Amino acid sequence: MEDLTLLDLIYELRKKCLQIDESLFDSFDISQAEYNMFICLKNCKHFNSYSVAEKMNLSLSRVSRIIDKMVGKEFLTRTTNKLDRRAIDIKLTPKGKEIMTKIDEYRLERCTKINTQINNAEAEQIATSLQKLIEIL
Are 76 and 97 in contact (CB under 8 A)? Predict the structure, then answer.
């Protein structure tokens, strides 16, 4: 194996993960951005465009385009906030909840596969190293 820099290895890991994820995206007819939105909505307490844009670190206009696509695919509903008419509240539809469940199952399957290949000490070391890299970058 050739000598790879740390950045080369990060790139290769990212590329491998995206290749694996592509089959999931294709099966649900979703994009990477829509997948990220599902993950974000899973962890958000309050669903509105502003909080989602902040959590995803995207512009409000970019988040609005993603939401428009997901509303069109019937994954989300969008309503005007009763307290602030400029704000839009977002809610998963039953179809969106079904996709979210399948995404959760997919992520659990991927985690299980990883955890069967490395021990707890290795997992902790990798997690610590990745967290450090995130802070550095």
Answer: no
In this prediction the pTM is 0.80
Quote the tokens at residue 80. Answer: 């005007």
**What's the rounded Cα separation, in Å, for the pair 21 and 23?**
5
Q: Identify the residue whose tokens are 């740390």.
A: 6
List per-residue pLDDT tens for the chain, 137 residues long. 467 788 899 999 999 999 989 988 999 999 999 999 999 888 666 677 788 888 888 998 999 999 999 999 999 998 887 887 777 788 899 999 999 999 999 999 999 999 899 998 999 999 999 999 889 88
N-term to C-term CA, the chain:
26
- Specify the CATH class of 6-136 in words: mainly alpha
The answer to whether the beta carbons of residues 75 and 91 sit under 8 Å apart is no
